[in-house]
Amino acid sequence: MSEQIRDVIVVGSGPAGYTAAIYLARAGYQPLVIAGAITPGGQLVNTTEVENFPGFPQGIMGPELMEQMREQAEHFGAQVEYDDVIEVDLTGSVKTVTTDAGEHYSARAIVITTGSQYRKLEVPGEREYAGRGVSYCATCDGFFFKDKPIIVVGGGDSAMADADFLTRYGSSVTIVHRRESFRASKIMVDRAKANEKISFELNAVVSEIHGGPQGVESVTVQDTVTGETRQIDVNGIFVAIGHTPETSFIEGELKLDEDGYIVVEGSSTQTSQPGVFAAGDVVDKVYRQAISAAGMGCRAALDAQAYLTALE
């Protein structure tokens, strides 16, 4: 049990968490960052080359970017612990977090940046070819599939938007959806249908992903009505079946929306509990970019700093 009451704890890492830690550390608050046990650094540690983060004209590898952010936070006085928060008490003037290792930490302010996880297909080959043909971010990875056949899996607005965006790069884009009808809005479906580079495989699911040393080469598609299967040659598979925010540890401590994302007040990062702030993909279900998460992490740090200053 840690007896020290800290000024601020950052729960989570990634661009939002490390940026918040940099700002808070430079302000003299010596934040504790509980970065996660398995994938500290968030989604970017599973990303290859990042070409759209400002300041890196030649691009930078996702893990390297997160490593540099972590080093910068520590340089200014942040402390990083590699553990998972499993329980929190966010009421009162002093908040407490409990980690998987059984440690208890207390602070006057908390910044939550635990992000969200892409929903997976959970089919053979998906994990093996993640980053080598299987992607969950069209705007991040579309460029790597220039003049190559692409599949987008999903039937919502995100899938339609991704398919439309990917026609800028791919030789063709096929939308694979398990039903005949779509969850997407009519305008998004109509736009996809009007794009001559987009075709549809309806009442179908991807049941297996195949590839070789160079990455994905084909997929097995199964008809959901007849059960019949066939192979489609493809080099890029973009999975757009939704996200799951990492908020299970909160358990009623904060107001969440119907999808489980943390609700903040207006354009601020203030949550439903005073002294608790949230940033990044655990809040943002629209943009989900490293640079927008970093910007929100900055805002959360400034909001937390203002809160702590008011307590003095």
Automatic annotation (TrEMBL):
Its EC number is 1.8.1.9. Coiled coil: none annotated. It catalyses: [thioredoxin]-dithiol + NADP(+) = [thioredoxin]-disulfide + NADPH + H(+). It holds the Pfam family Pyr_redox_2. It comes from the Bacteria. Gene3D superfamilies: FAD/NAD(P)-binding domain. Binds 1 FAD per subunit. Its cofactor is FAD. PANTHER family: THIOREDOXIN REDUCTASE 1-RELATED-RELATED (PTHR48105). This is Thioredoxin reductase. It comes from Bombiscardovia apis. The lineage of its organism: Bacteria, Bacillati, Actinomycetota, Actinomycetes, Bifidobacteriales.
